[in-house]
Structure formats: structure tokens, C-alpha cells
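Worked Example 4.2. Consider the chain below.
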Amino acid sequence: EYAVFPPSHGYQTVLMDLIVDGDTVDFYFLSPARGRLKGIDAPEPKGETKADGDKASAGLKVHLKPDRKYRAHLTGRDSFQRVLVEFYGEDGMSVNLRMLNQGLAKPYDP
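Applying the procedure from the previous section yields the following C-alpha cells:
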């Protein structure tokens, strides 16, 4: 069996790069990666859901800041090859869960 690089499983420290939208981010872990926040689905910031999508994106930017390190639980890849990830804030709380609790995203289990 061959190793996948960068790894897509396990707990890692990652460097946040860019908030793409309310459930997608770019980060660095050994190399650049695109991640999808596991277990949540935020509205897209375009079309009929633009206002709610913009709100979700802004909410995620409150919790995840570029150029900061975060603890992340990488759990695989989605159909677009994005790393499925749960991020943890400085207080140890799940950012994914915060997005749900704040009503900025809905539960998602593909």
C-alpha cells in the first residue's frame, strides 16, 4: 500500500491560508490543501443563497484567521478530493460545531 501525501487522516497542526466560503478553506499542511469542513453544509455565497452564504463565510472568518495555526482532525477526502477536516479553535472547541450552533450551517453527511 502506498502512502498518500499529504496525509488525509489524523490530528495535525495546520496553517490557515484562505476562507473560500462557509464550509471550504485553503490551508497548509506539508503542502497547500483545500479542505471541506466535515459534517456541515453552509449556503453558497452566490445566486439565491448569496446573502446567507456571505453571512456563513463571514462567520467562519471570525473563527479561522489566515496565517494562524489550528489543530485539525483530517478524516479523508470528499468527491472533489478536498480533505474532510474538523478544526479546533484556541479554546479547543470545534469550529464546525460552532458554525452549526450559530445557525450558519446545517448538518451534512453525504
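Helices lie at 50-63, 95-101. The beta strands are 9-21, 24-29, 31-37, 40-41, 69-77, 83-88, 106-107. Compare this with Example 4.1 before moving on.
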